[in-house]
Amino acid sequence: xxxxRELTRQVRRGAHxxxxxxxxxxxxxxxxxxxNLGGGIPIDVLTRDITAAGRVPLYTGLLSxxxxxxxxxxxxxxxxxxxxLAGPVRRKRFFLLAGLWTLLLCLDDAFLLHEGVFPDxxxxxxxxxxxxxxxxxxxxxxxxxxxxxxxxxGLIVALGFFGLSxxxxxxxxxGIDPFLFEDGAKxxxxxxxxxxxxxxxxxALAI
Length: 207
Description:
Layout: H1 2-13, H2 15-39, H3 43-47, H4 50-54, H5 62-84, H6 89-111, H7 113-120, H8 125-142, H9 144-148, H10 153-167, H11 178-205
Helix pairs in contact: 5-6, 5-11, 6-7, 6-8, 7-8, 10-11
């Protein structure tokens, strides 16, 4: 019964991890239940894919969906690097905060926080964008020495295109589709940011 003993050992060893998995999964499901019971929102509206629920073509929001994958990948790399690093505390903290900042932007992109949620709460869209920019300044200025130890050209490219994208909210260059300008610039920024954190994380972990 060697297999049974091994299974028992694995279950005991992973009991806390399994509990954490259930907790993490239960949190969003609990929110869905609260919205359904308290807000009367149908469960299928909360669980179905947007393209299916909205009955729109599968390619609707293609660039935005790929961008969300880029945000999520970059956040995962930063947080994994922060957890795996055995080096200086400040470097770990830099990757942790970079990961949280990236996760915030990912959630903003996914749920239209600065365009819809915050304005509905009475918070001006420009104030929200300024807050995101302020967090970026605090992050990269506060960890300037750590940034200088990374291949920061990619960071400069990413921040430059993010800035162009924000500019697209208020100014539309003539002769260029405004959606292409704003969303295209943001997408290039996401790709550059993902490449930057991937290379920086690899260097930090000496992979």
